[in-house]
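dude i think i finally got it to work??
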Amino acid sequence: MDPVVKVGLIGFGTVGSGVVKILQNNATLISRRVGRKVLLAKIADLDITTDRGVTVPSGTLTTNVGDILDDPQIDIVVELIGGHEPAKRFILQALSRKKGVVTANKALLADHGEEVFEAAFKAQADLGFEASVGGGIPIIRSLTEGLAGNRLTSITGIMNGTSNYILTRMTQEGRDFDDVLKEATREGYAEADPSLDIEGIDAAHKLVIMVNLAYGTPVPMSAVYTEGIAKISTIDIAFARELGFTIKLLGIAKCQDDVIEARVHPALVPSESPIAQVNGVYNAIHLVGDAVGDIVLYGQGAGSLPTASAVVGDIIDLARNRIHGSFARVPATSYQWESRQPLAIKPMADIESRYYLRCMVKDEPGVLSTISGILGKQGISISSVLQKGRKKGQPVPLVILTHLALERGLQSALQDMNALPAVSEPTTVIRMEGVE
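look at this
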């Protein structure tokens, strides 16, 4: 047996350079854990001249990905270029040649995961993707191994560091969304095009992957209700704080009677809850299992070295399998391929939640009773009301917290509320989580 496990890296960007640093700096530790030397044999990238802050041996860099995919001596291929193509093609080619594959590509796995998972199953090749969810947080391994004996009733968490950074700054400093977004871009926490982060799409990608692993069922992105943070205002953050809540962008999955609920949206959470304490670019994922109870995994959800840490963890796992002649010991999908089954996805209209409503209304008699009547017609009861400021002739905010209500009924009530002459603008709606 070759005393060296050879790795080929496709993509020498921020995370790729982090992988190289860890493989170099911790080479002795890694070889002791694996039982063989792990050698980074080739790095393929379109740009092999820019300084990445690491030095690699002469002959390691190439612009030809075929130098990795076509080399029978390379055991593990690491894909870190992101996007759908050509990343998917490279991964499928590597799997077809029975090479182990490690990727951090959440968008690809969320949108085309079934094709990739099936290819790994048919080739009986290893596929590692710990870095696709939560950066350095070991959530994938927790779902596929550590908590494999549990029925998970819920997965809730902060799954996007950029949005959490923005909401944290807005909450702590009272600044507007647009102002903090510009800062996040300058500081490198947000991309030049931040839409995937602030619109909740990045979090939805991660939630799709976790639901797939937790419940053994394919989940299309189209089935996940997705709402971002661009409409969150400082006035709602201030009202939430006064009421004892903090606003966070959450990914939420629940399973009851083999029906899946999967959604991403801003939510009011109790300010004393662990999730409310997660600030800046950090992520936290709260799992509830029937045997283990509550578990919260917390850590840096992005960044060069935290994400690279997860990639290298997968490389070590795949290298151990390879030297012992074991492949797919843990199925990529957590469940055995033939044991997976499609489960029903609950429509958003059928979910139940408590709600925060902020209406901008004319300060005149009878407005609250009219709105209460509209909500009552839909079976929605009010738990508390907050109204501040009186400006004659000008709209004032009326904040209502509801008891548990059906989304369908709430949306129907909103149509009638927003049509009232006394309501000056569409009502702001934020769902509430972690509230009895």
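The chain has a mean pLDDT of 94.
im so relieved honestly
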